[in-house]
Amino acid sequence: MLYERYGSARLEELGFGEGPYAPFPKAEDREGWGSISAEKRESWLRQADRYADYGWPALKVSDYRAYWTSGDLSRLSLAYFERRSVLGILVIAECMEGEGKYVDQILNGMFAICEETTWVPPGHRSHWKEFDKQESIPSSTENGVELSSVETARLLLWTRYLLGSKFDAISPRINERIVRETKERVLTPYLEHDDYWWQGFTPGERINNWNPWCNGPVLAGFLLIEEDPEVRSAGIAKVLRSLDAFIATYPADGCCDEGPSYWIAAAGGLYECLEMLSLASQGRFDIFGEQIVKDIGAYMPKVHIHGDYYAAFADCDAKASPGGGSVYRYGVSAGDESLVRLGASMPPSGDPSTRIWFNLYAYTRDLFVEKERLAQEWKAPYMRDAWFGVTQVMTAREQEGTEQGLYVAAKGGNNGEAHNHNDVGSFLVFADGYPLLVDLGTEEYKAQTFSARRYELWYLQSQYHNLPTVRGVLQRDGGRYKARHAEYSQQGGRSELRMDIAGAYPEEAGIAAWERTVRLNRDGVPSVTVDDVFTMKDGAPAEMFHSLITPCEPIIGGEGRGEILLTYAPGKQAVLRYDAEHLRARIEKIDDMDSRLRRNWGDRMHRIVLEERQPVAAGERTIAVTLVRG
């Protein structure tokens, strides 16, 4: 789509490289930077002052080797990401302060990063074939284009854009070093390679958020520092072809099957590329009217629950921070009022912390759009219903325009999705914007996460999702394990997804059919119900249990009552009802919560286990959730 419309034959007509590319003011534009509020300015300066004597921690070979010796990614990552975050904070602070207070420390950080043996972390070396996957010592020849190297390039490129004049006043060697390192480590390898899996040039290779994430900083490099017009055009043309592959393989319903917390890298990364192309061509490049581009953006308000909670499955975090500025700008560009309202409803961007990705472009762009964004004083749209027919995800809330009442999300799909968990047929329930029944998400990434032993990790397994376990057999990973006959419908006050999830289990489970219907009933006493109708092959009875994951502390009612009380907020309770004649309930505590799980849920979760009292060959089971009102 992009290359066809704006391919190499037309790139020169778009004017790339002809005029100044200035998406935001440079540091010497004191009027521009003076427009930032005093409160925002002071908050960034306070953060930067913490690093006045920062020592730029060493990246140790022993920490690099830990990936092979113990599977530990964190030891190297702490120093690696902290260096970059501190540098970004100092750069923005210098732009705000404007008197050179932070320049020496910025130079210290830039040259420390430029002198790193490699920008490629050990876990990403296996992404292209010429590297020895078992070599545990970093090499200065390992110049590959992947998430960490491009993020480093992005940071240096926009640092040069913002502060380049100050650097030149000190020495031309500073900007020369940035240009040389960025070209050698990122831009040249990008032009030389067509075999990075994320580029989308290898037939049959699945691509995901890595594509726009990596293409964004590469595109910035060609726009900002490449002076040879032929090389610049070749680089931009290749980026367009790669982004085309991403768009072509994106679900046609606009659903980010990686989830909301990955949307900012996937859809947000795509938007960043399109925004840069539009700004650098003085608006001649404009693709925002294309329906797929609009649908990719529209996903976020459709899965927003309340605050920073989103309908999240698989590796995705329940709490997403897509950035109000990026969401708002996407909405404005695409003409999507719901996306604009969601972006405008998000709180002011806070000070960045260290040890995270520091997107200097996004942080700076957001600073200059925040006043406009927050002036809207809009609430999030709180959309009533959404259905993604390709990915088979539904969302529904009790009342449009408010978080109050019940909310449900459910998925069919398959077990070969991006960042997949074995979760076909799983669902979420929220009440008044608080979680009741949820998807756990994932722990911090480690070597095993992306290895052949991935599905040995407990939180990826179907028994730790809101799903049945039959004969002790769990769902299996792979695209052929999927929901069948998924049908979504709305009628009156009812929204529901009906599907057969038997195909998500292997043969040894012995399931002939398992029709699951997840329904929101708005009429009468509002409720969320999950109806299961199942039969075993050859009429053979099977032991089975049904798992439900909750951050609430469940209280089981008296024997035979078939009720579990869930307190989800002070003075707010829900009742989960089940068939006590056939099912007995027990509660298991989940205390094995690492830092990423704790960020989403706190120190403890619970698994409600509804166990069949005796083996069963066929049956109908219903659970229902209602709120205690009044």
Q: What's the assembly state of these chains?
A: single chain
Average the pLDDT over all residues and give the rounded result: 93
Strand order of the largest sheet: 11-12-13-14-21-18-17-16
Structural domain count: 2
> Major sheet, described briefly?
8 strands, antiparallel
CATH fold descriptor of the largest domain: Glycosyltransferase
Instruction: Give the class from helix and strand content and strand pairing.
Output: alpha+beta
Shape field: globular
Question: Count of DSSP helices?
Answer: 18
Q: How many beta strands in the DSSP annotation?
A: 21
Could you tell me the radius of gyration in angstroms?
26 Å
Domain Heparinase II/III-like C-terminal: 408-543
Protein name: Heparinase II/III family protein
Organism: Paenibacillus lignilyticus
Pfam families: Hepar_II_III_C
